[in-house]
Amino acid sequence: MNIVILGAAESGVGAALLAQAKGHTVFVSDRGPIQADYKQQLATAGIEFEESQHSLDKILAADEVVKSPGIPEKAPVIQALREKNIPVISEIEFAGRYTRAKCICITGTNGKTTTTLLIYHLLKEADLNVGLAGNVGFSLAEQVIEDKFDYFVVELSSFQLDDTHDFQPWIAVLLNITPDHLDRYGYSLESYAQAKLRITRNLDGNGAFIYNADDEVTGKYFQSAFLQTRQLPFSLHHRRDVHLAGYYVSEDVLCTNLAPGINEEGGVEVNTANSPLIGQHNRQNTLAAVLAARVAGLETAQIEAALATFQNADHRLQLVGEINGARYINDSKATNVEAAWYALDGIHQPIVWIAGGTDKGNDYSSLLNLAEHRVKALICLGVDNAKLRTAFDPIVSHVEETQSMADAVARANALAAPGDVVLLSPCCASFDLFKNYEDRGRQFASAVEQLQVPK
């Protein structure tokens, strides 16, 4: 078969290597420049490629095209393929043809990475033979070449679910659906929701669908009657209107029941008190992850032990230090109001809040009540802090500004008392003072480390 790969980053190069390993003729085309390490991989494998252009004559000669999730449907090259009725699939679809492993797949607007990493950690700590793939930065296709794992835990964005057709997860997890990336879906929330719900389309009686019963958009568009698989809804509350598979019986104890509605008394309790995860959204992520681990056969003791040793991805409510009894938390990934709301809501100690950056048309009104009751000081870290000051000056007793991370952390240190939390949860993009949110988070962690070093 003549297979063309569009896009030569992690997923594209992985798909190219898998296609070659399975005996196909492969050509890789990227409209932009290809990173040096990916170019080296292709050259070493002897795979033909081009960069900074799309040669349509070669692309339209394909029997099948595997496209990068970053390429939108409206791109001219995709439109040309559609006109010729040449099949276009995703890397995930392609990889799924060649693996015998059971795939646990996680999607949702928020919380995907944390939940994916937590499920992977729980299974790995229980000595299951498990791999990690998808949107967390590891190509599923490349790992399928060896296909040495019994399980894969796969984070899937809506873009990766687009152009899947026959791919079959064993367990599908849907955390939530909130408006995001709507420009890719004709500014239709329903179209975006249906893209997320593609994760369920090939589930069968051997698998399970774990979903958030508290999420309104999921409830609106999920047609549960048509799904031929085990349905395991979870909620932060013990609700009487839904046969729940997972819910909390107290702040630190959750209950799972893998046969909801059939065996209402069959719940198994799991203590989460030793988990380092912070906030209500992480209680939801933990519920979803524990349910997946239970379906995979893990016992309570295995789950509780592994929860205590989990380390989340950097820049997501990450504890980076403690100085004079105050904890410093890096939540640089919180580039929008909703993410910052989760952080403020999840911390119950007095907060010295570092926020600011490039405003993306933010409406801060949803944060005002939390800020009034939990934030003792706000340090605005941005080139232009006028909008932040207008919103929070009237309700936060101490507000000041700086344009240096080192200064922001030093001022926070001066303002924080023992028992307080210094929280970097910017609410904004990072591009006014930093390269990206990772750079912002690293500078925060570095500044905290400098203060911890004895003078």
TrEMBL record:
Residues 315-427 form the Mur ligase C-terminal domain. One of its GO terms (biological process) is regulation of cell shape. Residues 106-293 form the Mur ligase central domain. It comes from the Bacteria. InterPro entries: Mur-like_cat_sf (IPR036565), Mur_ligase_C (IPR004101), Mur_ligase_C_dom_sf (IPR036615), Mur_ligase_cen (IPR013221), MurD (IPR005762). One of its GO terms (molecular function) is UDP-N-acetylmuramoylalanine-D-glutamate ligase activity. It catalyses: UDP-N-acetyl-alpha-D-muramoyl-L-alanine + D-glutamate + ATP = UDP-N-acetyl-alpha-D-muramoyl-L-alanyl-D-glutamate + ADP + phosphate + H(+). It is found in: Cytoplasm. Cell wall formation. Catalyzes the addition of glutamate to the nucleotide precursor UDP-N-acetylmuramoyl-L-alanine (UMA). One of its GO terms (cellular component) is cytoplasm. This is UDP-N-acetylmuramoylalanine--D-glutamate ligase. Belongs to the MurCDEF family. Signal peptide: none annotated. ATP binds at residues 108-114. Transmembrane segments: none annotated. It comes from Hymenobacter cyanobacteriorum. Pathway: Cell wall biogenesis; peptidoglycan biosynthesis. Its EC number is 6.3.2.9.
